[in-house]
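User: Fold this; tokens only.

Assistant: Input:
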Amino acid sequence: MARRVFQGRGANMRIVGLAELRKKMLAAGDIAMATGMNVMFDGMQKAADLARQSAPKRTGDYAASLRAIAVDSETYTVVNTEDSSKSIGKGIFLGKKMKAAIGIWGKWYGWFLEYGTVRLPSRPHLRPAVRRVWKTMIRDALKQIVKDVSK
């Protein structure tokens, strides 16, 4: 048990249990991070569903390919699918935090549909979908973190 003693003008103060407090605070941080990532992933799944509905459809392949993913932000490897060895390269991830990134991924040409090209007008569908769920996703994450950490 860690002890610190501070001596001042006529008063002594002893702080006991700093190591235990530090362990509990670190554990709370880990719980908060895991909970936050889970809630954010659920929110991205909702955003992917909305984006699927509003995505441009010629054959429907692109809309069907949209999904929420979690990625190791150092190796850019998908960490939440059956094919976890698949490396996807750099992409746009909406919520990069520590070693994980959560985002929406689809076919390679989605970027051109979202932002347009010289010959193709932009047809935004990802950004509006994320904007629609963002506030509720953050609110739900904070509520769940407070609930889980206070256990």
